Amino acid sequence: MSDRTLLEHISELVAEEHRLLAHPEDPEQTHQRLKHLGEQLDQCWDLLRQRRAKREFGEDPDTATPRDIGTVERYEN
């Protein structure tokens, strides 16, 4: 997955997040979907940071791999 593809996916996730916030339907479903979107966004941003770091240090950015949500979520704590 290229940086461009990642950024496009991030934009799609953010757009969906904004739609849900602007027009919530079922509160429980909206809450669960927003939580899932947040986790996906965290993983995408983490992968993009990994790719950029690898490129900066002369490594192949295509060797970056998505980390599990538990790992990514612990970064914030």
Main β-sheet, in a few words?
none
Rg on CA atoms, Å: 14 Å
Provide the residue-averaged pLDDT.
Answer: 93
C-alpha termini separation: 28 Å
Order of helices and strands: HHH
Q: Which percent range describes the beta-strand content? A: under 5%
- In terms of structural class, how would the helical and strand content be classed? mainly alpha
Overall shape: it is elongated
Which stretches are low in confidence, meaning pLDDT under 50 for 5 or more residues running? Answer: none
Helix segment tally: 3
- How many strands appear in the DSSP assignment? 0
Question: How is this structure best described in words?
Answer:
With 77 residues, the protein is an all-alpha fold. The chain is built from three helices and no strands. α1 packs antiparallel against α2. The longest helix is centred in the middle third of the chain and has 30 residues, at 27-56.
Q: Brief description of this entry?
A:
This protein has 77 residues and is an all-alpha fold. Helices cover 73% and strands 0% of the residues.
Topology:
Elements: H1 3-22, H2 27-56, H3 69-74
Helix pairs in contact: 1-2
Name the descriptors.
77 residues; mainly alpha; 0% strand; 3 helices; single chain
